[in-house]
Amino acid sequence: MSTMFSQGLYELMDSYDGFIMDQWGVLHNGVQPYESVIDTLNHLRQRKKQVIILSNSAKRADDNIERLKKLGIKSTLYKEVVTAGEVTWQGLREQKETPFKGLGQKCYLISRPDDFALLEGLDIDVVKDIEDANFILITGIDTNVLKIEDLDPVFKRAVVKRLPAICANPDMVTVYGHERAIGPGAVAKRYHELGGMAHLIGKPHKTIFRHCLGMFDKLIPSRILMIGDSMQHDIAGATAVDIDTAFITQGIHSNSFKPGMSVEQKRKAMEHLAQVYGGIRPTWVLDSLVWQTPEAALRERERARMKE
To answer: What is the dotted CATH code of the domain comprising 98-200?
Structure first.
């Protein structure tokens, strides 16, 4: 089936009852919600549609709920929040399932300065010397003060010790406002390139998508739509568990979609992205998470007037 281009979620209402939505690049840019997002979520709630927000955020679910609240996205507008950080926290606490089984209690943490939030409430000690560590935990990186290559000496010692690394956010690139920055996933990739074993928690891996699917009330996968802006994480991950997808062009791949592009130009840009990402194609393409574009609303009003 070829990719379809939509001007708003109102066109999809008869096809789906459940929605899994990415955060950054779809709902907000880290600073403020995108225009029409809250309006769209209200329309979904009024129609009793179920919404689960899925994020590769390395922070726990409650932290993301609070972030959304500060951005004006109230908890009444969605059913649940699932984060890679929450899955990581639960795994570190229990240490029963792969890749967390038997990790130990001594952690070498790679994060933004003084960000220990993911370890709160856990019986885990942060060590400063990699020689004392049982494993590495990657939650972020401050590229203003540190380059990935600066970690090479530590990583090489960790490889010799055969230490596993847990990455609580697989994103290769993060979006904050209009800025792009290196994501934690890129740090994990560097460790892997040097010979280390790195475990990525979150999208596009099947476990976290299946976790989301199990949280819907009495919905079958064919009635659920994943909405995301990352071909690598959102679209590929959802496709792997056989659910339909909607790709948002304004997010992480926005440089491929210039303002004023025709549908045919967007189709060519989309095909190029599909080729870059192994032939994965979304079911739908939308410019942003809107209920209905002004142009579409005008046409609908004109059709209604003609019927009178």
So the answer is: 3.40.50.1000
